[in-house]
Design goal:
The chain is of the alpha+beta class. Helix content is 15%, strand content 38%. The protein starts with a helix and ends with a strand.
Amino acid sequence: MNKLFVSLGLVLGLLACETSNNKVKLVYPETRKDTTVVDDYFGVKVKDPYRWLEDDNSEETKAWVNDQNKVAFDYLASIPQRAQIKQRLGELWNYEKQTAPWRKGPFLYYYKNDGVQNQSVLFYKDTLGGEGKVLLDPNTFSDDGTASLAGLGTSEEGKYVAYMVSKSGSDWREIFVKESATGKLLDDHIKWVKFSGISWSGEGFYYSRYDAPEKGNEYSASNTNHKVFYHKIGTSQNEDVLVKKDDDHPNWNFGVFATDDQAYDFMYVTESTSGVQYAFRKAGEDDFTFLDTTFSYSYNLLDNRGDKFLIQTSNGAPNYRLVEVDASNPSEENWKDVVPETDNVLQGVYLAGGKIIAKYLEDVHSKLFIYDFEGNKKGEVNLPGLGIVKSFNSSVNDPYAYYSFENYYTPKSIYRLDMETLESELYWKPNIDFNADEYTSEQVFYKSKDGTRIPMFITYKKGVKKNGENPTFVYGYGGFNISKVPTFEIQNTVFLENGGVYVVPSIRGGGEYGEDWHKAGTKLQKQNVFDDFIAACEFLIENKYTSSDKLAVHGRSNGGLLIGAVMTQRPDLFKVCLPK
């Protein structure tokens, strides 16, 4: 949190310094130049006089950091409002959070954090209402707080919850089982689980693990020969049934899960971080039928309707599509499009109330469209505003679905969607001393240097005038196919309360418009990222949201590279630059 205080202190310090006659004169310590360091790149000699700073363990570098910190913290201490900023952030920071609930059998399950808990607690309650009860509190897993909840699976009728525990941040998991209605911990205990889900089928569940490592090598030996097992409740681990292994491919990973009606099992196989092999079998059979063996695409099974599977896939659709696959005729040429690919990314597909809900990212905000099982569009869900649906939980026959919604000035709130009327009602919202009704976000589009149309969100307090005098904070990233979407961050509220304008341009290099948008900001096209960001700041000045003397820019990680580049290319454009 200290880093956030620093950022907000600097930005709000613009207000303080501009309205005070006692401006602080910054005297920076001298930085030694080493003129002997010269690199030769194919005959081009490039000096690097500050190479010595790359040795962060040297005494000279440590002394330089201490001197720089003294300058920074002396400046921060001189900002009159800094103590008030810290106090206000402290008042806002620790607020209650909840997730959208999901239904299994007669229960609704959800996570809740009171604002100061290290880990969120799993609650459950009757679907008809009533108070939630604690089912799993990860904060009690260990005395020193080093054990965490690492995944769970609720049985279809809601009778059991199997959950995984990680200790000291290890990838190794242990599985335990509780009864939902009583909270009773059963004797079932499974070890050496890794890279696994939990999928219930009948009176047990599928999980994946490795053989137990040799004693003393638990955290250092390489893991090979991943296997899938079936565990029946009430039995010991050594009785678990081996479902899948492949000695010919020791580095492949496997997972098996059952359809909701438990008529079919599906298996995925991975060899890297993207792309899978995908297969299915009828429950009770031994052999799997493969839909894809290429490791080139992703697949997500929604459900089966008898012998027809609904699968979201990137196969033949970089922006994803929903297809129907017939178990009796599963070859790819026979797949049927239910929701075809569009120009917008299909981020998720869900089933509820006998309908299909498709979630798209359209111009960097969420859209929910409703389809029937024949692929006919039946309507659109009116969301509370321009923002993001981060989670959506539903069951195919449940008349209600639950989703979370947030944007730059609205904290994450939970809504219940009536699948008959397609109307949403507020189910839960956090209690924060911040009135979101006093703020607004507008989305504008501007042209970058090469004419590319770039979207940008601008958030501010209602009534702010476009007079070129507003302190403005622009955040940028632009890389790794990561979409920067409207999300609520509590540290921004104090800046907005004080008349600040918070801005996020959706620059190239991210994933906001798919892979082409991403590639347009990579490698030899990287300058596009910097041009997009510079054009965003020029737009804000030209349209009198702010001026160069009131403009602060910030980026972290890849965004830090961005800020380092634009402050070098256009030092005249910004008052404060915060690369991290």
